[in-house]
Design a protein that fits this description.
- Helix content is 36%, strand content 27%.
- It has helices spanning 12-19, 35-44, 48-61, 64-67, 105-125, 161-164, 196-211; strands at residues 2-3, 25-33, 68-71, 74-77, 82-88, 94-98, 138-144, 168-172, 175-177, 180-190.
- The strands form two sheets. Strands 2, 5, 6, 7, 8, 9 and 10 form a seven-stranded mixed beta sheet that branches. The chain has a three-stranded antiparallel beta sheet with strand order 1-4-3.
- Helix 3 (48-61) crosses helix 7.
- The protein contains seven helices and ten strands.
- The chain has 215 residues and is of the alpha+beta class.
- Strand 7 (138-144), helix 6 (161-164) and strand 8 (168-172) form a beta-alpha-beta unit.
- The longest helix is centred in the middle third of the chain and has 21 residues, at 105-125.
Length: 215
Amino acid sequence: MKKFDIANWNRKETFAWFNSFSNPCYGVNVRLDVTNLVLACRARGESFFAALSYIVCRALNGLESFRLRLLDGEIWDAECANPCYTVALDDGNFVNCRTKMCEDYAAFRAGMRKDIDAAKEKAHNVEGSYNNVKVVDDFYLSCVPWMDFSACTQPLPDNMPESSSIPRVCWGKYTDENGRLRLTMNITANHALVDGRDMSRAFARIQSDIDLWEK
């Protein structure tokens, strides 16, 4: 991570305004066409979750505003943020898991599989809190594969600017709509750091990478 230069930032007044809010976060829900990605994953027997997580993190890391984090009253650039996501356990509970983001998709996919297995094993053998990893160079990812929703509101902690500066992404079950597979994705971000223009760019990049997926 590297410190961000607020003094010479052309939107420092916008930052100061939204940063004064008790809740400066906002969320946008967009319907995405995931047909190409689903078919590619099915053909190769690969994880749709891993592929979409990779696409999302690569798209968001490509936009500076989504990498910015609040830490101890300062802004830092995470440079390369990693996916932090929930993994379902056999008993119906969940455990948080984190995978190192890298450009090579095969390495990312293998790392995610290893991290998920390790997180499940640790959850069954080590007592601890639900989330005891205090880092900010993350993207929080959630998948709700049991239902197709039209909107989503993300939970945010009170008085924790470090946490609220971490973008949150959630998507639901994909369904067939006139021969195309679509799902709703929500991205929630801190408006002190992320404007609507970059939010639209993020969704555009995600959709483009889904359409061009050939990994």
